[in-house]
Amino acid sequence: MSPPLVVVLNGPNLNLLGMREPDKYGTATLDDVEALCAEIAEGLGLAIDFRQTNGEGELITWVQECRGRAAGIVINPAGYTTTSIGLMDALLAVDLPVIEVHITNIHRREEFRQHSFVSKAATGVIAGLGVQGYALALEAMAGLIGAEDPDDEA
Ligand code: CA2
């Protein structure tokens, strides 16, 4: 049987990770985050599809396309966290486990970063643990979808 697919979505400006503001977001690039996710996913018996877009419509389309294809969604919605009712509606409609990830602790930052529409559609939220939050999200997702550890004896 093929491994369950988890779609890992990244919103606007996350393509700049590791290239700007390392004091806030760290030095890992988005390619590094993808490599981390791929390594963790393999150990958990998950397949991943890792993507980034700057477009709100594209992000919403990708969420819609998860229906019937993916077992769960890990998403760092970045700047659309606090603005996009369309993204929230898509995540609610897709009816899959959703884990929202933020590299920084949005609750310690400016007030405008603290209200997340995406959280209304999320099963769980991880914030403030750096890019390790993506690895933790995949571990939690494996538990939510009942993925089988490939190292476990059948
Ligand atoms: O902490 C997070 O992961 C955020 O989702 C990152 C967003 C920010 O708008 C959220 O409030 C919190 C920003 C993503 C932009 O990423 C950059 C990375 C490096 C340099 C510049 C932007």
UniProtKB/TrEMBL annotation:
PROSITE patterns per the UniProt record, alphabetical: DEHYDROQUINASE_II (PS01029)
Pathway(s) served: Metabolic intermediate biosynthesis; chorismate biosynthesis; chorismate from D-erythrose 4-phosphate and phosphoenolpyruvate: step 3/7
EC?
Answer: 4.2.1.10
Q: Which Pfam families match?
A: DHquinase_II
Q: Where is this site: Transition state stabilizer?
A: 20
Kindly state a single biological-process term from the GO annotations of this entry: chorismate biosynthetic process
Q: What class of enzyme is it?
A: lyase
Q: Which residues bind substrate?
A: 76, 89, 103-104, 113
Q: Which UniProt keywords apply?
A: Amino-acid biosynthesis, Aromatic amino acid biosynthesis, Lyase
Locate the active site: 25 (proton acceptor), 102 (proton donor)
Which GO molecular function entries does the Swiss-Prot or TrEMBL record give?
3-dehydroquinate dehydratase activity
Top-level division of the source organism's lineage = Bacteria
Alphabetical list of PANTHER family matching this protein: CATABOLIC 3-DEHYDROQUINASE
- Give the protein's function: Catalyzes a trans-dehydration via an enolate intermediate.
Q: Indicate the quaternary assembly.
A: Homododecamer.
Similarity field: Belongs to the type-II 3-dehydroquinase family.
Q: What is this protein called?
A: 3-dehydroquinate dehydratase
